Amino acid sequence: MLQRNVRLDQYAHWKIGGPADYFCEPKNVEELISALREGRTLGIPIFILGGGTNLLISDQGFRGLVIRPLFEGIRCDGTQIIAEAGVSMEKLLTFAAASGLSGLEWAGGLPGTLGGAIRGNAGAFGGEIKDSVHKVVSIDIEDHDFKMVKRENTECRFGYRTSIFKEKGNEVVIEATLVLKAGESDAIRLAGESRIAYRKERHPIEFPNAGSVFKNVPVTSIPTALKESLAKVIKQDPFPVVPAAYLISEAGMKGSIAGGAKVSEKHPNFIVNTGGATAADIETLIGMVKGKVKEKFGIMLEEEIMRVGESR
Questions:
Q1: Residue 228 annotated in active site
Q2: Model pTM score
Q3: Would residue 72 show up in a list of annotated catalytic residues for this protein?
Q4: Considering the domain 206-308 in this protein, what is its CATH number?
């Protein structure tokens, strides 16, 4: 059931990453639990791979087992959608529109899977996945019995690009129930398509990238002396923030290069792979950006990405 020495760059949006010692793509929960048991028997680290977004995979790869769940069942029950974690956000939005259910339009063009979106409380255009989540089912992978855990929304500890699943790091999201509102299918579809068009125009999707590298900066954490000068760029995301892209641009980092990696001139909160970039190149640029922003504004940017595997 487990494959050996599988390249991970093919599953990462950055197209970067060395091999996993062991790799598995379970098609249902039973296969997932079987793979988890094999990993525990081998006594190796386990990493759950979703859509490969927001991930920086080490050039050395992952010394353990990478599990990429492929279960993606989805069904509708009134104004609720019950979807498995492997469902892509694109498929989820298409299904919602076809079912006449509104509430996910903000996710138009958002890459990745539902499981990943819940783990990081994905958001855009003023919306977040937490706004629709009713219940989440997960598996505790630290418990060798691999028990199912069921949580209501308030128990998921959703925060800005985080949740209990990201904080604990020892659970795999299996399924979620989303509560939406009845709407008109064509209007929902068009709203989602408008977000897709915006992303194509504003984001450097012509290059491999992992989405926003840095979190936007909450206004509450901006030094008092800077708040007035930054007032003109504050936006709701979904609370008042200063866009990281603005700070990076003003720090003069647009177009900065390290090897095959480059700070996008189209959207400076994106670091793109222009060809042959390594994880080390990305790390170099991240360090450069953080240093320059800190130097100019006294603000230390926080990464939104997750690192996987050995560091350089």
A1: no
A2: 0.91
A3: no
A4: 3.90.78.10
